[in-house]
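Hi R.,

Here's the chain you asked about this morning:
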Amino acid sequence: MKNIVLIGMPGAGKSTVGVLLAKSLKRPFCDTDLLIQTAADRYLQEIIDDEGMEAFLDREARVICDLQVVGAVIATGGSVVYREAAMRQLAATGTVVYLAASCATIAQRISDVATRGIARRPGQDICSLYAERHPRYCQYADLTIATDARAIEEVVTQLARHFRG
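And the predicted structure, written out as tokens:
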């Protein structure tokens, strides 16, 4: 059974949808941001502040490339698309689902940009980060689900229906 891999911007609902989808489909759930934090014994923002964005992205890719799960729902960090090796690994073992939300929706949902652990250049705002990442999400996605005007439960129901076949 292939994994279900959720990609998208911070605030798109990857972790929330992931937990509920895993429950609905009776599958294990894995959040790669939590794996990174646990392995480093630090918050994501501390890792980014201490090591820099590129080192964080390398760390994220290593964690993903070492991931050994089958049939799981995997919520990734929004920055996963910056490392091709990580995306190749995720695509080889799963179906990649882009939870797409507009820049306006993301900006509305995220109030703690400076402390949330978002891999971005110093001073980079959410909309420029969105513009940079959106084409990458589209490139890697096997399936795209718009989340803007939809309740989490509606997104989960649609995905559960899709993956139950």
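The mean pLDDT is 93.

Let me know if you need anything else.
M.
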